[in-house]
Specification:
Beta-lactam/transpept-like, AmpC-like, Beta-lactamase, 8-stranded antiparallel beta sheet, alpha+beta
């Protein structure tokens, strides 16, 4: 009797695997897409995106690839789970922390306009006294806010300790006043400018400083110095989303594919307030590759580390195993994920925007490796 059961186990296992394979294929066969599947690139992208959709949290995805100067758009899934609406190159997604690269360009512009020096003590631009913002006589400099070496706490406790805190939309109604209070309460624990440790509050403060020196709101600065020169007409802030038809919005989703709120950055616009689409963002990639403005070019200059692994002004810089120079930044909000990378020497890059918490790390790595080709 036991021998017969033992003989049946491989058969049962095979049936189980076939059923699950069929279910997986059914899911991907039903996946909406505008990928024409005409070229080798189309087929390679499709295969890699199907692997991404094996993550059950995946909802919608829009990608634009610049390969040797030629643009390729791909869209998959839905703008909202169950809607049946396929995203397009005009669909608006949350950019999350990719916004910080725009902030870096604004800082570069402020340097060129002689509004700011990168080596300035940040206390020059703060209201009141902040004796705590130095370590053994070494102050936090403006550049340290941009490359995350300022040792400023990633998120201040008063973000979540306040009565208005919303775990689904954590920065909403967070003010400059609260930011300054958090700065007063923090204590530096090591020398600044030596180690990069990611800080939303540091970049948030940088954005406030930029608004103050120009006496102009953050988005007005972005529009004047980045969006207008690059003709990015569809990029908006999180507080302007109501002006976009719902059909053109990629709704964020939680792990259960339920719609979750778009994040509101409060008064810390510089950390993640921008929203855009692949049609606009490829203009941003091209503008960065071509150094379309002096400020864009300056934002790429190394301020920390080395070209092998370092930072410019809010840009991560990396040299690949093939020796190619790579610039990039990722983003994330409560129900969205984003990736931007470009190879200036190869005239190539890509932007990946998603409206779910599905893990896109493997996909972005594969697309990056696909473009890293000097042939």
């Amino acid at each position: 009797m036991k021998a017969k059961l033992k003989d049946k186990i491989p058969v049962l296992l095979m049936i189980f695997l076939l059923v699950n394979l069929g279910f997986s294929q059914s899911k991907t066969n039903d996946l909406k897409t505008d990928n024409p599947l005409k070229t080798r690139l189309d087929s390679v992208v499709h295969k890699k995106v199907l692997s991404y959709y094996e993550d059950n949290r995946a909802v919608g995805l829009s990608m634009v690839i610049l390969q040797n100067g030629k643009k390729h758009y791909y869209n998959y899934g839905e703008t909202q789970f169950g809607s049946g609406i396929l995203p397009t190159k005009k669909t608006i997604y949350e950019l999350g922390s990719i916004t910080k690269t725009f902030t870096g360009i604004l800082l570069a512009q402020a340097v060129l306009d002689k509004k700011i020096n990168l080596d300035d003590d940040i206390r020059k631009y703060l209201p009141g006294e902040f004796p705590n913002l130095e370590y053994k006589g070494t102050p936090i400099r403006v550049v340290d806010l941009s490359n995350h070496t300022g040792r400023i706490t990633r998120v201040f406790k008063n973000l979540w300790q306040r009565e208005a805190y919303d775990s689904l939309n954590p920065y909403t109604s967070y003010t400059k006043k609260l930011l300054y209070e958090g700065l007063h309460e923090m204590k530096l624990d090591s020398l600044v400018g030596k180690t990069s440790s990611y800080s939303n509050m540091g970049v948030g403060l940088l954005g406030v400083i930029l608004e103050d020196v120009y006496k102009v709101p953050y988005f007005n600065l972005v529009n004047k110095y980045v969006l207008s020169p690059l003709k990015m007409n569809n990029t908006i802030t999180d507080n302007n989303v109501s002006s976009v038809p719902s059909r053109d919005l990629a709704m964020p989703h939680n792990a259960k594919k339920q719609v979750t709120p778009r994040w509101d950055s409060g008064e810390l616009f510089a950390i993640g307030s921008l929203e855009s689409n692949t049609e606009d963002m490829i203009k941003y990639v091209v503008g960065n590759i071509s150094n379309a403005t002096p400020a864009i070019a300056l934002s790429h200059k190394l301020t920390y580390g080395s070209l092998n692994e370092g930072m410019g002004l809010n840009w991560y810089i990396h040299k690949t195993n093939k020796g190619s120079l790579l610039f990039g930044h990722n983003g994330g909000a409560g129900g969205s994920r984003s990736t931007l990378q470009f190879f200036p020497e190869l005239n190539s890059g890509f932007v990946l925007l998603t409206n779910s918490l599905a893990n896109r790390n493997i996909l972005e790595k594969e697309i990056s490796e696909l473009l890293d080709d000097k042939k």
